[in-house]
Amino acid sequence: MEKPVSKPNCPNFSSGPCAKRPGWSVDVLKNALVGRSHRSKEGKAKLNEVSALMKEVLGLPEDYRIGIVAGSDTGAFELAMWTLLGSKPVDIFGWEAFGKDWIKDITTQLKLENVNEYKADYGQLPPLTKADFSHDVIFTWNGTTSGVKVPNADWIPSEREGLVMCDATSGVFAMDIDFSKLDVVTFSWQKVLGGEAAHGILILSPKAVKRMEENEPKVTWPLPKLFRLASGKKLKPGELEYSTVNTPSLLCVEDALDALKWGQSVGGLQGLITRSNNNLKAIENWVEKTDWIEFLSDTKENRSNTSICLNISADWFAKLEDAEKTVAAKKITSMLAKEEVAYDINSYGKAPAGIRIWGGATIETSDIEALLPWLDWAYCEVAKTYSASCCQGDCK
Fold it and tell me: 102-160, pLDDT tens digit by residue?
């Protein structure tokens, strides 16, 4: 197969930090409130602006709270678990690396006793219908490391006794999410918005706020200062939105504001979702006509439109040991990086060896389409080194 000529305009397909929005430059940071306190009148105004704009673009219920916390999505979700759990049994669903990390946190760090674990292998969903909503229920909306998402929130009742807590970091701004079915949602700017890392976003329903205020005296484990959101056992107005416990980067806040305003310019939430869906569709069309690749997700309904995870399905590849598969897959991705065609598209370290392409809204579909012939070319080049004759096209 001949080497393609056209390359993606932007070769950044990392699943986090993700590509900046089209047309981004450092000039968008010129109005950042650098050198000023985040507790100043102007600093609080910037923080309040980004919180209000996130809430507006996402279409959150009016009485939900949203704000910035430390530690990216990981910090936001751990904060939620450390401050909200303990008063009810927990049902937790894990089918990829991060969801299974939350299981570990709950069982080995918080050491909760009444925990029901529901797990599935990469590419599959666990049985969500087993959730008992008199308990607290925990899950990830989209498995960033597996490319498997929850298709909808229909399995969650509107009336429920426990809290529903969702790590939605690679789903927010790219998927239809019924926030009224969720009491806790966390994400990071570094995913679909293409923002900077290290800042986590925490969304709380009124019921979650009430639990936080009532639960603090009952928590029996150490609670770091960064996790103590409710001063005086009460989450006051602004304490989440602009009176942050940690010191956020106002450069990152300015960058997030730029990303959100760009999101509005492309059609708001539905426009962002459409962009991600178009990226997935381009890859689906390619997979349908390509005999060496398949989706890691076992069903189309559960297929992620952001962290698009692919398996190499060729017979010669299947016969390799796991370590050899990892080497072969990395040869493909390394070739594309060397050609400056695609960076960081190797699968997650704990996931099956393969390819992971970020398809979030900041990725142009034209760049996805330009990448795909290069994948065929790199695959053929690597297949030849394994004396394989099953690659696409003319491998001579």
Answer: 999 999 999 999 999 999 999 999 999 999 999 999 999 999 999 999 999 999 999 99
Domain boundary among 219, 246, 263: 263
Same domain, 224 and 277: no
Task: For residue 6, tell me if it sits in a domain.
Answer: no
Q: What is the pLDDT of residues 177-228, one digit of tens each?
A: 999 999 999 999 999 999 999 999 999 999 999 999 988 778 888 888 888 8
Would you call 335 helix, strand, or coil by DSSP? helix
Write down the mean pLDDT value for the chain: 95
> How many residues in total does the chain contain?
396
Q: Same domain, yes or no, for 43 and 181?
A: yes
At 215 the pLDDT is: 86
Do residues 4 and 373 make contact, with C-beta atoms less than 8 angstroms apart?
A: yes
Range of the domain at 294: 268-385
200 within a domain of the structure (yes/no): yes
- Regarding whether 194 and 50 lie in a shared domain, the answer is yes
What CATH code is carried by the domain that includes residue 297? 3.90.1150.10
The predicted pLDDT at position 229 comes to 84
Q: Given CA atoms 226, 227, 232, 234 in this order, what sign does their dihedral have?
A: positive
What is the residue-wise DSSP string for 51-115? HHHHHHHHT--TT-EEEEEESHHHHHHHHHHHHH-SSS-EEEEE-SHHHHHHHHIIIIIS--SSE
**End position of a domain, from candidates 263, 291, 313:** 263
Residue at 18 is within a domain: no
CA 194 – CA 186 distance, rounded (Å): 16
Cα–Cα dist 306/369, whole Å = 15
What is the distance between the alpha carbons of residues 26 and 126, in angstroms, rounded to a whole number?
43
Encode 214-224: b = buried (16+ Cβ within 10 Å), e = exposed: ebbeebeeeee
Asked whether residue 350 falls in the same domain as residue 220, the answer is no
pLDDT in tens, 214-225: 887 788 888 888
Tell me the CATH number at 117: 3.40.640.10
Residue 215's H or E segment, with its range, is: helix 206-215
Model pLDDT for residues 244-296, shown as the tens digit of each residue: 888 999 999 999 999 999 999 999 999 999 999 999 999 999 999 999 999 99
DSSP 139-152: EESEETTTTEE---
For the record, the structure tokens of 365 come out as 């579909």
